[in-house]
């Protein structure tokens, strides 16, 4: 599991230490709770309800293109393209939504009251902020600002035939900039704020960006590389409270603050120039798991199609909902989520991973975190965040011990059994009983009002999904999609409490499985068809910017004109039409004796070990066993060392000790066997690495997926040594 000291900076900030649980109950209170919580639900379940009936969520469909097993969403016979008539582009959708919800809250930002710096024991300084309440702008007010910026960027000198790039952290001005550009048919290039210099230079030069929008803190970095960015002419920066940047000149660039550009447009408005549905809205640079990032060309039609589809899946979206936005808007997951919110009149409150909870790293003591102040009803998360929350809750329960621990375990086990059993047990009386007695306080961790969570970016373990369902009390819609499909592929439905699946196809797309004979995955497989996942429909994007060869490799157009994207993922369809991702073509290695090893499958199993924070499994065709690089959970390993009496001066030394490696190896062997891995799939040799893999280090993506090639390059000597030990000692038992 994740831990604070082995995480990227944005995730490390989710410091979940102060979780407040129910007060210790007296003896009679505990007995009464158990009687009410167990006997009464069992009685009602037995008398009135049986097992839930299966629900068909996806149905087979005949489509064009390569032969395979295709499925559509059971709700819609035809693919949906727009959320309502006339909303063919994001510019049209946004204007219509703003007029419909003109007086409703739209965008909220917390006011900075003050900041301090604290010094740690090793001399490093950390910023702590004191934040106030959310200050809101209505849909009508935001629309006015978008119109002003749309005019202002042209008055400032941007050439309408060139592109704009946004290189900044998520905030309200990011979204206003995006919508302003859409209003003038300007294509926006999105770049992760954590992207390194080389990837940034590559992205800006490849797309020939002329105007760059950024945080003021990025100005110094940009000035240092200005000679390598020949196409940039204009810089627009978001003001920060520090006011450490001013308008004027920066190198040879024309520079202005965001508010100055808004003022230009307000004083001298320009008529909008609306795009077509086929126009490129965004060139989105993925963080990429291999090599330099690729720019995916996303049309307005792609964005509105995914938006329209998701609206049909999440029940009762509307103006009573509040959404907390804190993930990178340069990532397809967050941009798709915020598009859905804008289409349905939902209030979007902006936060930050550094200020998310009351105990986040940047929050000053006594100041509430974003979730406590906003109390959102909707939240997006990547699996690493949910794993972090789970670890914090479990750790606090263990710390409390005694009656609290026993009651929590009884409640959790009963709820888990109920979720897997009767409808009443899952959502009826037993849920009410245990929520009141045990889980109410835990839910305050995320504000106490969450009714639905969207999870994406990577596979979510079944254990974490059940844990969040029970402790936070909200269903999780686990989505599957890619930048190349503008996140629109599959989405699990709110009433589906199964785990390990990503739901049926969204109504904007078909999903087809195509046999991959070499890997042994066929659509004729029993009991479920298997094969490479291919997505076709309105959410499938236009391809890679200036990379026709790669585009032709993974995008195909069938005889009916429908566009398909070959994902490289391996999936299987369950009888109810729900998709499960089971493998990835690039992650499969053929071992010396001909067995196929799925690196991703093994990594998914090993990541459930409490000692494992990050893991990369490595294998080659010259051996019969695999090896692994592991970043251990610092808290778990240090707790073991304390109990075992192992002495060490610092964490790197602890990781280098043979005793530590033996302990982790034994633990991963247990989870590997529990996960039914074959002997050849269990790492025979491992290396413990003390430093976390972060997006900033370039070893994982923004969604925390490992960058296999970069890891192999960085740790090539360690991997070579591990493999050499395989040759000397054979499989099993020998540890580096």
Automatic annotation (TrEMBL):
Indicate whether Membrane appears among the record's keywords: yes
One GO cellular component term: endoplasmic reticulum
Q: Which UniProt keywords apply?
A: Membrane, Transmembrane, Transmembrane helix
User: Which one of the record's GO molecular function terms can you name?
Assistant: long-chain fatty acid-CoA ligase activity
- What region holds the AMP-dependent synthetase/ligase domain? 127-545
Which spans are transmembrane here? 28-49
One Pfam family in the UniProt entry: AMP-binding
Q: Which PANTHER family match?
A: LONG CHAIN ACYL-COA SYNTHETASE 8, LONG-CHAIN-FATTY-ACID--COA LIGASE
Stated name of the protein:
AMP-dependent synthetase/ligase domain-containing protein
Organism of origin: Arachis hypogaea
Q: What is the lineage of its organism?
A: Eukaryota, Viridiplantae, Streptophyta, Embryophyta, Tracheophyta
